[in-house]
């Protein structure tokens, strides 16, 4: 039985996979407040739902009175994390990294309160210290503490070597730099806990060992399990693309729909991980089956979207969904797909509308959906695959639907 309320909460809600010293961390959290961090590289302009689990962990730590640090990897992004990848990440230029960093900052501020006053959270960028390192001094003073033999045993490296997938010297340095981050945060901010996904275990352990060798501090590592749905599929991406956390990459409506359309077997798990509802409330929502689970899905979608995009946009997404379900054509809040007018003739077929909008992958798929009576334009069922329209009729957005769950406005401009 864990002694600290926080670790009990995290374990019961499904956040904990492994810990370097669970008993030691539990005793520490029982008697004092600490500083902890999670690092996020700027490889994209947004994080996706696969990252949301760790963001919620930071939220729970802050709620319990601890200082949390979101460490943005402006420096480590220049190297690229090799963890469980078959090939090296494409290198990103400084301009793209800086653009991505600005976008990532806006995401964290929705979940975490940032302030220089303890226990307000800090948002730091490791490029501030990594870019200033002198290579020879770094090798002499820091590199000497890393064991190549041990680094080769970490699963993220071992899996690449066993499969004869290339691992560049550049990538191999990544875990050294991340380990140095932990040491630096401990020196400057008394940070003693690094958290991350289970794929970060080797990097976290490296940082703990490095800091112990350099200043004797006792540090801890805590990892969360790989986020999967009930069918065992890794979350973060769907068949239609990543479930992004920023509005520019994915509309609040589509984000809302992702949660509304989750599998029945995932509802309880998602409520525990992605909301702050009590155990009693979650059990109450999920005990009854059948249509009651649809109500629970709506509550899940509303709550997760409210945390990510704000109450107003969550409410708008819910209202839009209701309007579509009731076959109302007032769909001004639907995401809009633009087709370039220069790519179209005077007339356009429904097959072309579906394929050029990207709603289907091929004309073959479009024909199948129409034959299955799954395609509607402005609420009217499409029966004929040869049906065509004046291109000019799409100057104003028209609602195109596939099944009951996929709805967009299409406009030709």
Question: How would you sum up this structure, described in words?
Answer:
The protein is 44% helix and 15% strand. The chain contains 18 helices and 15 strands. The chain has helices at 5-13, 22-31, 49-63, 94-108, 127-130, 135-141, 148-151, 155-162, 169-172, 174-189, 201-215, 252-260, 267-274, 279-287, 291-309, 311-325, 350-356, 363-371, and strands at residues 18-19, 35-41, 67-73, 122-125, 191-197, 220-224, 237-238, 241-242, 336-339, 347-349, 375-377, 380-381, 388-390, 398-402, 406-412. A 6-stranded mixed beta sheet has the order 1-6-5-2-3-4, sandwiched between helices. The chain has a 5-stranded mixed beta sheet with strand order 9-15-14-11-12, with no helix packed on it. Helix 11 links the parallel strand 5 (191-197) and strand 6. Helix 12 (252-260) packs across helix 16. The N and C termini lie far apart (63 Å).
